[in-house]
Write a structure and sequence with these properties.
Chain B: Residues 95-304 form the ABC transmembrane type-1 domain. Chain B: It is a multi-pass membrane protein. The complex is a heterodimer of chains A (353) and B (313). Chain A is 28% helix and 24% strand. By secondary structure, chain A is an alpha/beta fold. Chain A folds into two domains: 9-116 and 198-345, P-loop containing nucleotide triphosphate hydrolases (Rossmann fold, 3-Layer(aba) Sandwich); 122-197. In chain A, the strands form three sheets. In chain A, strands 8-9-10-5-11-12-14-13 form an eight-stranded mixed sheet, with helices on both faces. Chain A has a four-stranded antiparallel sheet with strand order 4-3-6-7. The two termini of chain A are 24 Å apart. In chain B, helix 5 packs antiparallel against helix 6 (127-141). The longest helix of chain B has 38 residues, at 223-260. Chain B is globular, with a radius of gyration of 24 Å. The chains are: A alpha/beta (353), B mainly alpha (313). The interface between A and B is medium-sized, with 28 and 20 residues.
């Protein structure tokens, strides 16, 4: 949190200095709003976090918590009438130039998307263009941002397919997406994302739609690539098992707000916010949930659902579902409190065991 | 691929065989004696008998059918009774205006409909979208011959930019002849563009929300490239279908429009053939138009194969 709100000084050309050294991305008080008939839906409401160079930050939360909207806001891909309504998204590119992506035009984003920040999406089955050969889709990324001959391009694409461990890249390069499995398509998406050597990779639930064994393969691949290429990764997921596999830092989101943020070990060892604790408790655990006689322990599901963001309660957004709720929780919106170095929580109850 | 094409061609042949048979039967089951109807009430019994013999109507039905099919296989559609020449020749002489009229109408229709449809899908809900949707509904409901008359009045009679009628004299240059086609092609094209525009908008709207369009944007390309290269190509299959249907409809739409603009095309040929009960000409035109329908369908099917690698019949 210490580097989350750096003093910023606008310089000429809309570039902003003041991003702490060693930080690739600093999101500060991000507000992303969707006007709707029932009022403005604040899908992201005051989100703040930083992403240090070469690290993986996981953003965790249920459906509707605003984690995907956060990642799309960073990419400038929020579909109108949704828009970034406030806050800063400071990004340092590979030349060291710092920009506020929250104020960047669509044209300005064209040089950011791909070579600087690349993204992998949740649905490998639908995220590739069904009418284009996978090699052309990867090659397009390179050709958009670099001058390169056809022959060199093809060689680069084959290299990328090798990098993501696709067998027989020389023949697979000419395949269409429908001729590939979900895991292979996600590898193609990863190859595409890495094509221009971005320094920041946003992975929006990249393994959610895949079989468990394929999930593990893709996670291992991402972890290896992150270490080899020295990328910073923003990893969006609802799966705490995945978080434990891949993240250095964890940001827990609920109803558009950050409710807890901590280094991964600290978060799993000392979860503070009742929502984080409930998430951890509701994660299936084979060793814990069934004994040798086959007796099952009931899963600790969180009662209720994330409230619609147009109808949040006035106090803590989690209060209606919280097992430890007090009257005070329903009155004021709690702020983020530091309970350890780099560990913050948005809960007024310091007394929980 | 080759197997698909061969199968499609065989299917086309089957459809055409059925069409040929239906046309043959329809003419034979029409009430009364075709020969007598062609010659009118004043004809003598001998005239009628002569005509029946000339048309082969005095032979048995299977024999007539065999002769008819045999002729077709040799490209012989029979003899026109009134024009004193083979039906194929009569059709060929009238083919040019109809061909160019249909072609220009399709080009005009697509030239209007595709940009309008794409833009109104891209800016759906905008003022542009609302205005074009309303205009499209209006355009779809006006008859092309009425629009033809309005255009003729405005651009030919008042402004004198184009010829109101006809197809130029016998020695007219290609440019002069095409000048005669501008107004009728606009009349047909504008009316047909409404349907294509609606389909383009709906199909684009479907596709613009798809995940791969977001992927394309995430690659850092221009919006034009996103919309035309990634979205439009995916939206193309339903659009191709409706363009094919429109092209087929235009052939029949051309009949009325040709009459309004006095164009010596296949349309006016068939109208006068109907009025004079020139059965061989009607028969031949029916067959040729049906053949064109089948051919257009075949071309559209083949385009599906080119556009979408997933299409395997």
């Amino acid at each position: 949190m210490s580097a989350a709100a750096p003093a910023t000084m606008p310089t000429s050309g809309g570039e902003i200095d003041g991003l702490a050294e060693g930080v690739v991305l600093a999101v500060t008080d991000l507000e992303t709003h969707f006007p709707s008939r029932r009022g403005v839906a604040k899908a992201v409401d005051g989100v703040t976090f930083t992403l240090p160079r070469g690290r993986t930050v996981a953003v965790v939360g249920e459906s509707g918590s605003g984690k995907s909207v956060t990642s799309l806001s960073i990419m400038g891909l929020i579909a109108p009438p949704g828009h970034v309504a406030g806050g800063r998204i400071l990004h340092r590119d590979r030349k060291g130039v710092v920009r506020d992506l929250a104020k960047l035009s669509n044209a300005g984003f064209r040089h950011i998307r791909g070579p600087e920040i690349a993204m992998i999406f949740q649905e490998p089955m639908t995220s590739l263009n069904p009418l284009m050969r996978v090699g052309d889709q990867i090659g397009e990324m390179i050709a958009l941002h670099e001058r390169i001959s056809r022959r060199a391009l093809r060689a680069r694409v084959i290299e990328l397919l090798q990098l993501v461990e696709i067998p027989e890249p020389e023949t697979r390069i000419d395949a269409y997406p429908h001729q590939m499995s979900g895991g292979m398509r996600q590898r193609v998406m990863i190859a595409m994302a890495l094509a221009c050597r971005p320094n920041l990779l946003i992975a929006d639930e990249p393994t959610t739609a895949l079989d468990v064994t394929i999930q593990a393969q893709i996670l291992a691949l991402l972890r290896r690539l992150q270490a080899d290429l020295g990328m910073s990764v923003l990893f969006i997921t609802h799966n705490l098992g995945v978080v434990a596999e891949i993240a250095h830092e964890v940001v827990v989101m609920y109803a558009g707000r950050v409710v807890e943020q901590a280094p991964v070990g600290d978060l799993f060892a000392r979860p503070s916010h009742p929502y984080t604790r409930a998430l951890l408790a509701s994660t299936p655990n084979i060793a814990r949930d069934i004994d040798a006689e086959g007796r099952r322990r009931p899963l600790a599901a969180i009662p209720g659902a994330v409230p619609p963001i147009t109808a949040l309660p006035p106090g803590c957004a989690f209060a209606p579902r919280c097992a430890h709720v007090l009257d005070a929780c329903r009155e004021g919106r709690p702020g983020l409190v530091a309970i350890a170095p780099d560990h913050v929580t948005r809960c007024i109850r310091r007394d929980l065991p | 691929m080759t197997r698909v094409v061969v199968r499609r061609l065989l299917e086309m042949a089957l459809v055409m065989a059925i069409v040929v048979t239906i046309v043959f039967v329809i003419v034979r089951i029409a009430p009364g004696d075709p020969a007598a109807m062609m010659l009118g009430p004043d004809a003598t019994a001998k005239d009628v008998a002569d005509l029946r013999a000339r048309l082969g109507l005095d032979q048995s039905l299977p024999a007539q059918y065999g002769r008819y099919v045999w002729g077709l296989l040799h490209g012989d559609l029979g003899q026109s009774i009134f024009l004193a020449r083979p039906v194929t020749q009569a059709l060929w002489e009238r083919a040019e205006p109809t061909f160019f009229l249909t072609l220009f109408s399709i080009l005009i229709a697509c030239g209007i409909a595709l940009p309008v449809g794409i833009l109104s899908a891209y800016r759906h809900g905008s003022v542009f979208d609302q205005i074009t949707s309303t205009v499209a509904m209006f355009a779809a409901s006006i008859p092309s011959f009425w629009l033809g008359l309005v255009l003729m009045q405005l651009f030919a009679v008042k402004l004198g930019w184009f010829q109101p009628s006809g197809y130029g004299g016998p020695g007219a240059s290609l440019g002069e002849r095409l000048n005669h086609l501008v107004l009728p092609a606009c009349a047909l094209g504008i009316v047909s563009s409404a349907l294509i525009a609606r389909f383009t908008r709906a199909s684009m709207l479907d596709v613009l929300g798809d995940d791969y369009v977001r992927t394309a944007r995430a690659k850092g390309m221009s919006e034009i490239r996103v919309v035309l290269l990634h979205a439009f190509k995916n939206a193309l299959i339903p659009i191709l279908t409706v363009i094919g249907l429109t092209a087929a409809l235009l052939i029949s739409g051309a009949i009325v429009t040709e009459t309004v603009f006095g164009l010596p095309g296949v349309g006016s040929l068939v109208v006068s053939a109907v009025l004079r009960r020139d059965y061989p000409v009607i028969q031949g035109t029916l067959l040729v138009v049906a053949g064109l329908y089948v051919l257009i369908n075949f071309i559209i099917d083949m385009l599906y194969l080119v556009v979408d690698p997933r299409v395997r019949y």
